[in-house]
Amino acid sequence: MPDANSFCPRRRRVRIAAVMGYRARMSSAEATSPPSEAPAHRSPFFYGWWLVVGGFSAMALNGALLFHAFGSYVVLLKDDFGWSGTAFAVAFALQRVETGLLGPVDGWFVDRFGPRRMMIIGLTIHGLGFLMLSQVNSLAMFYVAFLVIALGGAMGSFLPASVAVVNWFSRRRATALAVMMLGLAAGGLVQPLVVLGLEELGWRGMAFLSGVTVILAGAPIGLLFRHHPEPYGWEVDGAAPRPKAAAGAPSAADPAEVMRLPAEVNFTARQALRTRAFWLISVGHGLSLLVTGAVMVHFQAHVRDSLGYSLGTAAGMITLMTVMQVLGQVAGGYFGDRLSKRLLIVVAMVLSSAGLIMLAAASALWMVAAFAVLNGLGFGARIPLTTAIRADYFGGRNYGVISGFNSMVVTVGIIAGPVIAGAAFDATGSYVRAFTGLAIVAGLGSLCFIFLRKPDPPDETEGTRHRVPQPVAASTAGS
Question: Which of 41, 178, 238, 426 is most buried, by CB atoms within 10 Å?
Fold first, then answer.
């Protein structure tokens, strides 16, 4: 039977053939096009850096209005109510215990519902806590308000922001975390403005203004966040999207490109807790925080009461330490993406321990300044490095809940440090032995990272894998 095309003029047959060829080419193009949820036009600026900006902003708010301002509130509240220093120490300990115990719960919520919701909810709670603080009339009410502030700060600051960042970055993970965490130091640098507000408005007025500011800022900051890059047409570290192969068809990707994308192993929380690496990281980090906790609570008292310098001099040393912390964070992020994070953490811990020994032996102001430099550099570098190495070892898929369990362990260190130092001072009238002993124990904690090794992948029937871009010659710098 003659073909229908044989009845068509030659020109028409050519036109029909051209149309059929075009449709075939379009079908082929659709088979290899990116997923439908990927935007057709994408900014050349990698969206992951907007997450860093959001995390920086949230941590700057937390640092300016709570972390660095706590001591100023203590002075004013003592003047108004006459509460003892022990009462405020209890508030500090309760806040740390709450953060540690709720860490796994907060982490599970972040992993389950995403950082955007948790950021918005957390900052709203954080702001409501400040509004409660502005109405405090009793010690019990102060504890309740402070716990609400701390809960909101934990839910709407470091944890959800770090979960988002570790999922959007791999090769530049330490750098991104370091830049994000500079927000905490930035909060310290604006303390003169916070103190001015406390002096002009009173602690009640400043607490109310802080609450309103945090609530209004919560939604804009939270809306910046995205949990994973792939649904938005991005790849980790901003790499070009991989083509989507047709069902049943072999991938058209270059074999060399496939080798660039090794599977990132994602542990569940249960699998991570079974590894030696999790406990070495957690215990080592917790021992390093013995120094941090002791310094946060007792540094100014030691400089003024034991060494005989003014509070203004002590404040100047804190400013120096903050500046060195910023430099340490930047250096930790930069070198952490290029050298061994594990060995860099060892160096950072040794610097902090050496600084505390210098402070314990201080007989001149230059020795106090040397402590500020060494401890600032060590503490600053350690922050992004310990955060990044957990993601490198256990993956980003369940990073929130794994970090939550880690916080339960490290909280012991930051609470024990000031308690031990305070008890030793009460018994001996000096911080020298306490600081020296804590420095030695914290220094020994570096052994945890010396013996740390990347854990073997879990059973693939239990764990999950997720591709992330890596250099062709994969570096072992993170191990």
Answer: 178
- What is the rounded radius of gyration, in angstroms, for the C-alpha atoms of the chain? 27
What 3-state DSSP class applies to 445? coil
Q: How confident is the model over 412-416, as a mean pLDDT?
A: 84
Q: Please, where are the H alpha helices in 114-190?
A: 115-133, 139-155, 158-168, 173-189
CA distances from 243 to 36, 252, 272 (A): 12, 8, 33
Q: pTM here?
A: 0.71
Percent of the chain with pLDDT over 90: 30
Residue among 63, 66, 65, 328 at smallest CA distance from 183: 63
In this prediction, residue 5 has a pLDDT band, given cuts at 50, 70 and 90, of very low
Distances in whole angstroms, Cα of residue 90 to Cα of each of 86, 93, 96, 147, 290: 6, 5, 10, 11, 17
DSSP state letter for 396: S
For the segment 227-254, the average pLDDT, to the nearest whole number, is 64
pLDDT of residue 86: 67
Distance CA 446, CA 444 (A): 5
Give the integer Cα–Cα distance in Å for 292 and 269: 27
Total residues belonging to the chain: 479
Whole-angstrom distance, CA of residue 385 vs CA of residue 380: 9
Q: How many CB atoms lie within 10 A of CB 268?
A: 18
Name the residue among 155, 45, 34, 39 with its Cα closest to residue 400: 155
* CB contact at 8 A, 87 and 23: no
Burial class (CB in 10 A: 0-12, 13-18, 19+), 59: buried
Q: Determine if residue 248 is left, alpha or beta; phi over 0 gives left, psi from -120 to 50 gives alpha, anything else beta.
A: left
Residue 448, both tokens = 């945890």
